[in-house]
Every structure is written in C-alpha cells, then in structure tokens.
Amino acid sequence: MSSGENNPVQQVSEFSDMAFRSDAIPLQKPLENPGNFAKALEGGDFIERLPWGHYAELDIHVRPQYVRSYQERLSKGTQFQKGRAWTHLQKPKDLIKIRWQLLLMFAGAFADHFMFRFWMFCAIVTFLAAAIQAGIVAALIHATFPIIVIVCLHLFFRYPFTWFLERHPDFIVKDLGCGFFRPTGMVKFRTWREETFEAPFIEFDPYISFHVNPKGPTSCKLQLRHRYSGWQTAVASVHSTLKHELYAHWDELQRYMDVSQPLPDIPALEPYRHLDPTTAKYDAAGNRGRPADYWATLDLEWWEREGYPAHLNAIREFPWHQLRDRMQDSVPNLNAGAMV
To answer: pTM surpassing 0.85?
Structure first.
C-alpha cells in the first residue's frame, strides 16, 4: 500500500515491516552532533525533547465539539467522512499551501479586532505626534494615510476575504498526499519549497518549542524534527499555559502510529476500529471496556459537564516526565546529539 492511499473502508490485512512498533524499534544510525552553536541557532526555540514508546493512554481529540460533530454526522446517515479524513490508514496534514499560510497569518493580524485596535492606536499616536511637530494640516496630509490603509485592510480581510474563503475553500488547498500513515510507518509533509519530504516515523525527534506570537500571547508547539536532515513539521500548537496538552498530543500520535497498540479511542476513529487488525483483536478480547458505539451514543451533556473536565485534569496531573524514552536504546548518541 502506498502512503497516499486512503480508502476509508479498506481493511488492513497486515502492516509493513517499516511500521512503527514501540516494542521493536530497530537500531538506527547515530546522530551527527552539529555543535553547540548550530544547536543554539537552529533549536533556539526548542525547550524540551519528548520520550518515545511509553504511554499514558490519554487522548486529546475527545473534546465535546469532536463528539458532537461525530454524533451529528451519524445522525445524517454518514458513518465515514468524505475526502481526506483521519482514518485507520492515515492522519492527513498540510492541506493548505505554504504561501496561503503566510497570507492567512497576515490577514489574521488585520482581521482580528484586538490587533485592529492596536494598529489604530499606533496610527493615531503617529497622527498626533505629526500634528504637534508639523501642525494639523501637515498631519492631515501625511499621517492620515496609515489610518486609511489599516481601516481598509481590516474591512477587506474581515469581510470579502473571509466570505470568499468560506465559499471557495479549495482555492487555498492543494493535496500533496501528506500525513501520518499507520500501516507503513511513514510521515510525509509539505516543505516551505512547496515540495514534500517523506521519512519513517521513527527517524523524527519530538520537541516542544516556545514562541511569541504577533498578536502578543505566547504559545508552545509540538514539532517533529527529522534527526538526519533537519526538516521539521508542526503537529499541534497551544497557548503556553496549556503546554501539558502537547504531551497528550504526542502520546496520542505515537499510539496511532504504533501498530502494536490499538487505535486511540477517539470519536474520529471509532468507525474504523474493526478495520485495523490490532484494534479488532484488542476489542474482540474485551480489552476496550466500552461498547462498539461508545462515542456515537455518549451522553454529550454529561461529557461536557463532568467527563471531559475530569479527562483534562487527568492530562494535567499525569507525571509525563516519568515516562522512559525507548528511543535512547535505538539511537546510540541521542542525548548528546539531540537539539536539547
């Protein structure tokens, strides 16, 4: 099976030899130590490297909105999502063109109400400074232009631009077949060159990086860095106060790719559990401990009120730093050669 195939009702008969198995990670070649200067230059945003192969079994994609969306889809008679969906075969990613990602960031800086007020404040201060120094006439001639530009950009990105993208989402999407592929153990993602990079899942090191956003708040990202080429791809991003959620993102992604483990027990993957051999065997043995339609029939009000808050608390309180890193046994000099 090629990494790009995605027939949602295709049953997997066997997994590739390259598929990720946490209990059988092969020995890999050592890392080239780039030196402290290169680490500081390239990995300056990295604050933590995450461990491989031991799990808390705490999923992140169980938010009430995901449950609601799943139940609503089933109520309409649609069990399997159309198009590029997260299935037992692949978890798609990088559907938006790189240049559009940059434009969307620029658009967000002007469409956002908070940032609009910030830019307007700066423009008005500039106008007042010009009026004090050169007079009101000179200020009207030279300092009103930034105000007009900011207002026009805000209105454009807030209304016609948003209206167009809501009605023509395919305009910014280019499917290059990127994603995480469970049966083959491969990862494929879009690079800044609008090309793709593909490598085995086990050749990536997971890092949490810290960022200061243009809008002000700080954020943390879960990023995978290919240890032998340096190519990176982002998996998830959260506010810096929610960094613990990135541990759950990594835990869930590993278990999704780990063919020695059942699929993560989340709404998106419930319709596909019987199509994955490891998961089907796990469920048939009664190990799931839940009915086959658990998420489909879950009391959503209870989940929002009690279940999900308790689940978030479990993620927050879990001792993530006590998980042992199995990748250290596979890559001889991982601790010395890693970015952090």
So the answer is: no
Burial of 304 (0-12, 13-18, 19+ CB in 10 A): middle
Beta strand ranges found along the chain (DSSP E)? 46-49, 90-92, 179-181, 186-190, 196-200, 204-212, 218-226, 232-239
State whether the Cα torsion 323-327-332-336 is positive or negative. Answer: negative
CA angle 188, 193, 196 (to 5 degrees): 15
Backbone angles phi, psi at 113, to 5 degrees: -65, -40
Q: Which two structure tokens, joined as six digits, stand for 90?
A: 């692949």
**Structural domain boundaries in the chain:** 48-94+176-283+290-337, 101-170
Instruction: Judge contact between 210 and 218, C-beta under 8 A.
Output: yes
Task: From residue 87, give the alpha-carbon distance in Å to each of 11, 98, 231, 268.
Answer: 11, 24, 25, 7
Model confidence pLDDT, tens digit, residues 236-272: 999 999 999 999 999 999 999 999 999 999 999 999 9
CA angle 269, 273, 275 (to 5 degrees): 120
